[in-house]
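User: I would dearly like some help making sense of a protein record. I have put the entry right below:
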Amino acid sequence: MTLTAVRPETLQRTPTSRRYLVCPPRYFAVQYTINPWMHPEVPTDTDRACRQWQVLVATYRRLGHQVDVIEPLPDLPDMVFAANAAVTVAGRAYGAKFRFPQRAAEAPAYQARLTELGFTVIPPTYVNEGEGDFLVVGRRFILAGHGFRTDHRAHREAENVLGLPVISLELVDPRYYHLDTAIAVLDETTIAYYPPALSRPSRAILAELFPDAIVADDADAEVFGLNAVSDGYHVVLPVQAHRLARQLAARGFQPVSVDVSEFRKAGGGPKCCTLELRA
């Protein structure tokens, strides 16, 4: 299949109603180190995380989106990061298989909840961390990351399960260990991304597919500005990503800033907390 770029300036930004699955951070804490952002010696404030999460969920509802909830389980402090649990397309869910044992028990819990919500869940053969590394670009294709958390072989498996072409991209900076920390899909024709997080061949692929991509700087990448959630017009992103918000507005998007700084201590942001459910 030949994939061609579409120039976004010819299109109008239009929001579409989305459905999300989220998990309250009732047991959120940084208790171990599985990415460069996690430092157990730095205190976390679970109550503050809960307040920030409530604002995030209220923001989604205010923007007209449906929000479903999965109940958190004790001893799974990262379960709040719902995006890592699966990737969904057309009522099918390709489940996660976590790289680290600390998160392994999240996978069956999310698969059970997705089944309750009416999705056909396909358990994976290979290690993958859901929408952390699989970014669905409308009905066109899926951008898929590898290098730190997701086995490259999972890309072909996801393609077979979900029925969309999968384009493999290599992550090279351990700070941006999931693709959703380095790329934000804004609509079917537009992304924002941080080039240094990706290998040179991967940057070339993105330049071909998205010649008008928004390029984030170091400062915005470091506050997880690209870990954003877009409905095609509104882009929910960390309040600290100042330049990226201005770039989004200049390109016709509406930035919606939220403070999720407590989750950054575990290497997460708005997108990490949000699994999109595509029926």
The chain has one domain: 15-276.
